[in-house]
Amino acid sequence: MQQFVNLTLNGVILGAVYAAFALTLVLIFRATRIINFGQGAQAMFTTYIALTLIERGFSYWLAFLAALVSGFVIGAVVERVIVRPVETGPEINAVIVTLGVFVSFIALAAILFGNTVQSFPAPFALRGISVGEVNVAITPNDIYRLVAVLIAMVLLLTLFRFTSLGLQLRAAAFGQEVARLLGVRVSRMLTLGWAMAGLFGSLAGILIASGSLVFPNYMDGIVVFGFVAAVLGGLDSFIGAVVGGTVLGLVTTYVAGYVDASLVTLAALAILVTVLLLKPGGLFSSSVARKV
What we know:
Layout: H1 2-32, H2 39-55, H3 60-83, H4 91-113, E1 118-119, E2 129-131, E3 134-136, H5 140-162, H6 164-174, H7 176-181, H8 186-209, E4 213-214, H9 220-233, H10 238-259, H11 264-278
Antiparallel strand pairs: 1-4, 2-3
């Protein structure tokens, strides 16, 4: 019984890690209708910025804030300088460009910060919480990551559902010509969408790295599973991103704990294929089909 409880807790925390990145994919998709495959590399780069500041004596929280600001700026620059010139061409062009962003940031990080594995500090304890005489497999740092993901989800839901800015972002993404006729500054909205995705991507990078090891490719696995989580929940749904991440985290943890760790990737693929066959738009999709 204790093994089941510990595996469940580990699955929930792992799901929060996947959900953190899935939220950024949903955000960029809702704001621009583009999947940014370079998001993980951008998050990794801003995490290194935070780590550099911490190593120079700055507090974790100041470095955390610097990473978020850096992510916001990098997201805006990527959209303006790299993505904007190809936005009017075939849609595959933007996808290819984001793959180039992915490779470029990994190479740049290796040049500036090196390829060695480094430890990223955690703001809270990494020791499991004790309940009576039982040591539960969840730490204060895990709780911090879980709460941060839930707060991010609530903020994004509030932005897109209840604010004028969220409505303008959605309008700019779905119908640029109509949005312009209604007075929406589409160019600014697209840049803002990429900037916000960069900010929340940096949040995901920091949460994933806290109490763990970082190196230029540390986000690669998270990108894959985060993408699966986003597709499971539906690329239009922030709640779906969190639910998809949680489901994926639980299933992969149970498979690793009860069956064989080598089957984790296969289990994730099976879940993805099953959901896409039964509901192609994802579990929480708001429409049957949309042009990406």
